[in-house]
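sanity check this:
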Amino acid sequence: MIIKKADVNKLFLFVFLFVCVFFPGDPYNIKLYALFILLIINAGCIVNNLFSKQFQLIALFGFAFPIVVMIQSTLLTRDVRSAISGAYSPVILILLIPIICYKLPYRDMIIVLLKCMAILIISLAVADIVGLNNVNENNFIRKSFYDLGMGAMGKSAAYSSYYRIFMKASPLLVLLLDDSISKRKYIWIILSFASLWFSGTRANVLSAFIIMFIRYAIWNDNKMNNKRRIIVSLIMIVGAIILAPRIYNNVEALMSTSGAISSDMVRSGEFEAYVDLFKDPANLVLGSGFGSQFFNIGRDHYSVTSELSYFEMIRCTGLIFAIPFFIFIFIPIFSKAVQRDYKLSYICYLIIAATNPLLFSSTAMVMYIFMFVDIFADDKRELMTMKDCRKELKYESN
C-alpha cells in the first residue's frame, strides 16, 4: 500500500488542530511535535514557495516576524526561553503553504472539531441539569478539565448564563455558528448557539447574539422563510430577556459584595497600568519584550501578561512591530477573496480577543489560517511541491 504525502499531512494536521482546539496549553507538547513534523515533511514545499510572490505575507509574518521579535525580546529581557515561547506562534502560519499546496481540508477539519467541542460543552451542561454530573463538584471530569488546561467550568447565579463551561478555544465556536447559518443547518445553529451560551463568558454570548441578529435581521440573503425568521427572532428575544437580568444581577452582586473585584474592574486596573507604562516612549515604541514584568494595577501584583491582548501586544513588541501585525490580521476583513459570512465571525473573534489572551496564540493562528485560506487559494499561480521541484531539476540537467 502506497502512503500518500497528502494523507500523512492530513493526519498530523488533524492531530495538531485537535490539540489546539481542546488542549491549547499543550500539557504533553503534542502540539509542538505535530507542528515540527508538519514543517519537516513539508520542508521542500515550504522552501520552494515561502519566498515566492504569492506567499510574501507568510514569509514576512510567519517567518521573519517571529525571528525578529524573538531577537528583540531576547535583547530586552535576556531571557531566550521566554522570547521563543512568546514569539513562536506566528510560525504556525507557514502551514498555509502545504495546506494550499496539497489542498488539505483545513476548514472541514476545524468545523468537525468545533462540532465536537459544541457537543462536549452542551453534554457537560445537560449532564449537570439531569443530575449525572455536578460541574461544581471536584470529581474526575472537573479535575481532568483543569489538569489538562482545557478551561474552566462551574455554575452560579452570578454568571451571565448561569453555566460557565468555558474551553480556552471556545471563541472559535463563532465560526461554527456562522458556517451553520450559511449552510442552513438548523440543528447545528441551535447547538453552536447553545454551546456559546453555556460557555458562559459575556463576550461569547454577546457574539452569538450579534451573529444571529445580523445574519437574520440585517442580512436578508439567507433565504429563510417568514415562519422560520419569526421563530429565530422569538428565540433571540427570549434569550435577550433571560440574559439581560443575569448580567445586571451579576454586576450588582459583585459591586455590593465586600472585597469582591469584578473582571471589569481588573481589566480597568490593567488598562490604567498600560497607560502608566506607555508614558515612557521607549516602552510604547520599542516594547518591553515577551516575559518582561509590569505592575498590574488590576491584580495588584507584577505580571508577565494580561487579558487586554492588543495593549499586551504593544507592551511586548512595541508599536514598531505591533502596528504591522495589526494590519496583517485585519487584511481578511477587507479582502474580497474572503466570504462575507466568515468576516462577521472573524470580527466577533477579534472583539473577543480584546479582553482575552487570544490575539497572539496558537488559537489565534488557527483562526488566522482559517481566514487567509481563501486569500491564498484565490491566487491562481501554481505552487511547487517536492515532486515538481525534482522534475524541474531533472529537466534542467538534461
Summary: Residues 110-260 form one domain.
